[in-house]
Design brief:
The complex is a heterodimer.
Chain A (H helix, E strand, L loop, with lengths): L1 H24 L4 E4 L7 H9 L4 E7 H4 L21 H12 L3 E7 L25 H14 L12 E4 L21 H19 L4 E2 L15 H8 L2 E2 L5 E2 L6 E2 L3 E3 L22 H13 L3 E2 L7 E3 L6 E2 L6 E2 H17 L4 E4 L21 E2 L8 E2 L2 H6 L2 E6 L3 E7 L6 E9 L2 E10 L4 E7 L9 E6 L2 E2 L3 E2 L13
Helix pairs in contact in A: 5-6, 6-7
Chain B lengths: L3 H19 L40 H8 L2 H13 L24 E2 L5 E2 L5 H11 L4 H26 L1
Antiparallel strand pairs in B: 1-2
Helix pairs in contact in B: 1-5, 2-3
The chains are: A alpha/beta, B mainly alpha.
Chain lengths: 481, 165
């Protein structure tokens, strides 16, 4: 019996340990900045200095490819003279020189690649309309080949994504058929599968992300959960299960843009909408799709990434979130996303968009930098530090606080936790950050004193933005003011 | 034969394993920009609240302004696209239309036992599942651990009874 007991104890310990390790492996956090459109070294150095290790950029298919399709050319050959890669080469070189991993998103489509007229309601974005999957795949192949690390001395790029927010009419069409039924998921599935094969045929280690989905459905947008179910050939909102259709979707990573109509815990009111508080719904669907064998990708459990999230700041946008609150929301959004099992978080974007006299709610002032006349003239916003060194603290029971954060260097080491008390910062504990810089711990403090005050983290003399222990109610907010 | 102290140690180890599993770290631009705000009913439920694209948040760009933007390179064109894309929308369809739940202003954050702020589970079962799930420890594995711990406890108790008699 003693031997049996020893075996059982060992088994349980191993299983418990395995659970912890498996969990830890999925619990890393890498940050990025999305839609970096400037193309100068300063910009990318700032992204890197923001603690990010990834950068997300647009690949303007319609500008790289010829305006009219040549009678004779090889669209799969990145060195075909009809392609113009100059701007993208510079962008990729600048990104990698700053130590960043690029995520390249193919957007737009040359008119000759569309199989129906672009929606005239959006004359400038010219959303791709049912683009020919073979033509997108050819371009995807040329793109992956150009940045395979063995071509013309250009850097290696490993992350590729076809299109943006294909559930929104402003970025992709058509969305619905004449009966009002969503058609975009099926159209997008064909595109994604072909693109996947093309990019993976260049290098099987490349990763393909499905396009990030916009958070809300309406008359011109398919709600993201509904879109995802149809894309993945699943049915059932509460208990997702496979449909009878024979269907496989090829992707390595699922992407969501969970913009919130409130704060970082906000849940959408629409059942099929996905805002930051609803990421669990999407995780559940993905898990069911994985289990049903719907997703063919590199991972047994398909990772979920967030490649866009932000709020406009009040200053400059009068309809934005007040800066002090936004500092809290920035850190907390990263924490909430991580807590939902999402390991990659991208902020949209590095610098505020130009206002140009337009209404504030038509432009995004969600940058980590206030926009100046030039990039050099941009000024860091106070939220930059909350993004670089995310840190949160919440009361835990009656005599402890829970702290979580990621140090700016994303490195292991000891982090000091301090609390502001009696007019000065006092150390209340030390937390060991893991090799990715993540740390979390419950710290005991004087009974009943954990509902007020402010806590911060210090790592290598760098301090996080202080985080109040006071509870905050969710409040309505518009992501773009 | 297992001694009483060995039983105690075994049970303690089992409890530690089970508790350790629980204590494992948690796992870890139609109306353009208006599209990113959900249509939320106001407090009367009439739907004129935040982000309603039929409200006053629509954007108009006059012809002159549009020409300036269109000539201002890609950034200007994107801004123009966003502005042009902003306009009154059609009535919501079934696709993702709001379920009519009230907005989030009444969502008070609720502190949990471990200090993290969690969504309110709807019932005991859901709470339990959520707790197990958040611990990163699979539910079946948890049941196995609990069953073994109970079995070992029962064995220990029986042996104690035996030795007492």
């Amino acid at each position: 019996l003693r031997r049996l007991a020893a075996i059982l104890v060992s088994l349980i310990s191993i299983l418990a340990g395995w659970g912890t390790i498996a969990n830890s492996a999925s619990a890393g956090l890498i940050t990025g900045v999305s839609y970096v459109s400037e193309n100068d070294p300063t910009t990318f150095n700032r992204v890197s200095a923001a603690g990010a290790s990834m950068v997300h950029g647009w690949v303007r298919w319609h500008l790289i490819a010829p305006e009219t399709e040549p009678d004779s050319w090889n669209p799969r050959d990145p060195e075909d003279p009809n392609y113009d890669w100059a701007a993208l080469d510079t962008w990729v070189n600048n990104a990698t020189s700053a130590g960043l991993k690029p995520l390249l998103q193919v957007y737009y489509a040359p008119e000759w690649a569309n199989r129906c007229p672009s929606n005239p309601k959006y004359p400038v974005t010219k959303p791709p309309c049912d683009p020919d999957p073979r033509k997108l795949a050819d371009f995807g192949f040329a793109l992956a080949k150009r940045y395979d690390g063995n071509t013309l001395g250009l850097p290696k790029v490993s992350y590729f994504q076809p299109q943006n927010e294909p559930n929104l009419a402003v970025f992709f069409g058509p969305q619905f058929n004449s009966k009002g039924q969503p058609v975009s998921p099926g159209i997008y599935r064909s595109l994604l599968n072909r693109f996947y094969d093309a990019v993976k045929s260049v290098d099987p280690n490349n990763k393909v992300l499905s396009a990030g989905l916009a958070p809300n459905g309406n008359s011109s947008a398919v709600a993201p959960l509904q879109f995802a179910r149809k894309l993945l050939c699943m049915t059932g909102r509460a208990n997702p299960r496979p449909t009878a259709a024979k269907c496989t979707v090829k992707l390595d990573i699922f992407d969501m843009h969970p913009y919130s109509s409130g704060g970082p815990t906000h849940k959408a009111s629409g059942a099929d909408n996905v805002q930051i508080g609803d990421l669990g719904k999407l995780k559940k669907l993905l898990a069911a799709a994985d289990k049903a064998g719907r997703i063919k990708g590199d991972y047994k459990r398909t990772p979920l990434w967030v490649t866009e999230m932000s709020w406009d700041s009040k200053g400059p946008d009068p309809g934005g979130v007040p800066m002090n609150l936004l500092k809290r929301w920035t850190s907390e959004a990263i924490y909430r996303t991580w807590k939902a099992g999402v390991g990659r978080f991208f902020w949209y974007s590095l610098r505020d968009q130009a206002h140009n006299g337009l209404p504030w709610n038509a432009t995004a002032q969600s940058g980590l930098y206030f926009r100046g006349e030039t990039v050099e003239g941009d000024r860091a916003k106070p939220i930059l530090q909350a993004f670089r060194f995310p840190f949160v603290s919440f009361p835990s029971g009656k005599k402890a606080i829970f702290v979580w954060g990621r140090n700016p260097q994303s490195k292991g080491g000891w982090v000091t936790v301090q609390r502001y008390r009696n007019g000065r910062w006092q150390k209340i504990g030390m937390v060991k950050a893991d090799s990715g810089g993540l740390f979390r711990r419950h710290i005991r403090i004087k009974r009943g004193s954990n509902r007020a005050g402010t806590v911060r983290a210090v790592f290598h003399q760098e301090v996080s933005v202080p985080f109040s222990l006071k509870r905050f109610r969710d409040r309505p907010a518009r992501p773009f003011g | 034969m297992l001694s009483l102290s060995a039983n105690k140690i075994l049970i303690a180890l089992l409890m530690c394993a089970a508790f350790g599993a629980f204590a494992a770290p948690a796992a870890s631009a139609s109306s353009a920009l208006d599209q990113y705000v959900e249509e939320i009913p106001d407090t009367t439920g009439d739907g004129a609240g935040l982000g309603n694209s039929k409200g006053n948040n629509t954007v108009k760009v006059d012809k002159k302004q549009a020409e300036i933007l269109a000539a201002a390179g890609e950034d200007g064109q994107i801004l123009l696209a966003i502005a042009n894309a902003t306009g009154p929308s059609d009535p919501p369809s079934g696709a993702g239309a709001s379920s009519g739940e009230p907005g989030g202003s009444d969502q008070m954050e609720a502190g949990t036992a471990n200090g993290q702020i969690a969504e309110r589970p709807s019932g005991l079962g859901e709470s339990f599942s959520a707790a197990v799930s958040a611990s990163g420890f699979s539910f079946p594995l948890f049941l196995v651990v609990v069953a073994i711990a109970l079995a070992m406890g029962a064995i220990a108790w029986l042996r104690r009874q035996d030795s007492a008699t």
